[in-house]
Specification:
It is a single chain. The chain is mainly β. The strands form five sheets. Strands 4, 5, 6, 11 and 12 form a five-stranded antiparallel β-sheet that branches. The chain has a three-stranded antiparallel β-sheet with strand order 1-2-3, with no helix packed on it. It is globular and about 55 Å long.
Length: 174
Amino acid sequence: MSPDGSWAIFIDQYNLYVHSLNEHPTRQYPLTFDGMKHYSYGVVPKSPEQFMISQHFSLPVKPIGIWSPNSKLFLTHLLDERDCQEIHLLQTVPEHQIKNNNSVEAHPTKVFSYRYPMVDANIRFVELYIFNTESRRKTRIQLLNQLSSLPEIIFNSNNIQWHQNSQQMCIVDK
């Protein structure tokens, strides 16, 4: 939710939407239209553990990013994993697992698949974007080099800071 409580960002079908919380009735506006499977905005690349937890509990995908102090701008990223190799995990549980109440429960074998950049193969590409919630425009941030840190590291630390005037920011990528 934005700092002033007037906006919320969410992901639907690999695209970002902004939800206006001050309008009655509330309205949703698309911010992107080009998202697709393995090419999405605001998503965290999943580790095997994160992937299995999100699959098992059917958790909604929440975008990561940083709001400007004036609540008009939202910084997030586009993650391109289309050229990454798909990895498969096999979950096996004994055919008959004893539960706490001594009843027997059968567990089928499950396969979980996720994308991962292999050594000497194509890597994930991350581009940073600023979204204006009022004009619904996106602006790509031109960086000198490809980000070396993964989005969850950048956004979940103090590596990106907005200036109080909401016109400048500092990005540290090391």
